[in-house]
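Per reviewer request, we include the raw input and output of the structure prediction for the construct analysed in the revised manuscript.
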Amino acid sequence: MTTNEPLNFMPLDLDTFSGSERFMAGTRLGAAFSQGIRAYLRAAYSDAIEHFKAALIAAYVEGEEQAQIFDRERAIIYLYIGNALAFQEDWEGALREYLEAVQTDPELAEAHYNLGVAFASRGQIDRAIAALKEALEHNPRLYEAHFSLGRCYQRLDDAGRAYIHYDQACNARPQAAEPRYYMGLMHQDHGAHELAQRCFTEALRVEPTFVSPEVQDEVLVMRSEEEVAQWYYRLSQDLKHQGYEEEAERIYRALLQWRPQEYQAHYLLGNLLARARKLEQALDEYSQIPAHNPHYADARIRLSAIYKIQRKLREAYLVLFECAKLYPQQGKLFLNMGKLLYDMGRNTPATRAFERAVQLLPRDPQAHYLLGFMYNLTGHENWALAAWRKAVDLAPDAHSLRYDLGYMYVRRERFDLAAQQFEHVLHYWPEDVETNFMLGVCYKELMEPARAVPLFEKVLRRNPQHTQSLYYLGAAYLQLGNTSLGKAYLRRYDHLQRQTEHSTGAQRSQQARARAGRSGGVGMQPAALSVGRPSS
């Protein structure tokens, strides 16, 4: 399609007489306006312009109440003057009048539309699009605006947006053939003749008397099948990115009807259906992909994920296991197998699967993290620590992982290393309660109570019932030598603990106090640390 010729859209008229009878009777304004309309209807545009201008002047100079007009009526007169100029191919003059119309009444949708028409006629496509969008802001069902936007986007080779606005034009006026015709031209221009023919047939079905306009810049294009297939993919991707997933699904299905062996389309359509929770249909699409296709392993992983959603864990695992026999070097398969084995309660095989995943994906931080998680679960803390350090090295901005690593250091009483991790997390999540608390614990254990106190106080401002912070804050003040304040916080801690013990029962109370290890020193421990990973 050529891009140097202007787009020719028709300006819109208005039902001017509706609501305007008031100023048309017995005044010079009314007489001039009526003469202008009559001249306009018989295509005497020069005479119409003179009469409309006389009407505008009369509205200013006549003093009678019935000669006063509202902004909407004045904007309509400007619009008709602009139309009369446009029909005489005076687009510069028409543009001036349309600008007056939209400034006089910014909510007049037809004025914005005609302004877009004037910009398009001058080849200013971007400004035309802006004006047409403004028209739709005031009248979302304005057929002409949707159709014209489709034409503008088609001129810019923005297939997705063109398709959307043509489709919305069809919805606004179901019996209109023209948007369907231009959709067909768009498909034809990219060699998608099956889609094009479907659009042309539909155009004649809804409007049997439709006569296609002379389109000199559209030609029958013969392209390779691969080029045409890429057009389908591109159009579907555009539609997906703009949120029109049902339309994208329709394009994928049209491509597969033409080329059933287009396995990439099966895979992408399966993804689309899975996101829409059409799980059985997605399973069917993934199952179409043969083992030799590059998308096979990814399709098996997604098929397994659907089985997992359906609580068919064994089927989900077998899908991955069989695929791994064909593709033993695919690390993602072992990563997902490990997750499934963990869900099935088979920790030892899950650990082996993650170990294999790490071998195949040495730069994948998730693989190292999950391996560390399993090592920690099975009591191999040293190995877990090494795996998590590697994961953090690979993903330094994985703040949740840093939190877990910091907590692991706390368990090993490496408070200096733990503090480094919590400081990093707190830089990005300054309001996270548990990170503030854990960093405060580290500073206290490092004999830096002055740095610990503001962190515990911040936790208590966010959660006054955080008993562990009360305990550690009291202990920190004792370290600083502020005995009275330290004892006050410890008394408050004891009070809350007694309330907790009373509400949770004597057995839990004994367990909590045993963990607390209250022996009377500054280094005494509260109930077990309430550790919760920060939310990302």
